[in-house]
Write a structure and sequence with these properties.
Blueprint (H helix, E strand, L loop, with lengths): L2 H16 L8 H20 L4 H18 L4 H4 L13 H9 L5
Helix pairs in contact: 1-2, 2-3, 3-5
């Protein structure tokens, strides 16, 4: 799958998940949204399309992971396991994306 097509897919998934009222989202939906935010942020930052948008998405991912309060290795296993690091939590987003934006 080409990167551009994959980004379109991710944006559609992001929009669909964002349409669910936050209080009605399941833990899995919140976790999936956090993962999608990470992947979109990574794409924006890596391709230098928009570091501002990338930072915003990375911060949204961090906020979702903080809300989820994942504490065990099993909880940190990503839903999108083929696309993400072995474990996902707010620290991964910070170290891989936010820290890369520091001047």
């Amino acid at each position: 799958m080409k990167a551009m097509k994959f980004d379109v897919f991710l944006h559609r998934a992001y929009t669909t998940l964002k349409s669910i009222p936050f209080g009605e989202m399941t833990i899995e939906e919140k976790k999936l949204l956090a993962e999608i935010c990470f992947l979109l942020a990574k794409s924006n930052i890596t391709n230098r399309d928009s570091t501002v948008e990338g930072r915003k998405l990375a911060e949204e991912s961090i906020s979702l992971y903080n809300e989820l309060n994942l504490t065990t290795k099993d909880e940190c296993l990503p839903i999108l396991s083929k696309l993400l690091p072995d474990f996902m939590h707010e620290g991964v987003v910070k170290s891989r994306l936010i820290d890369s934006l520091k001047d």
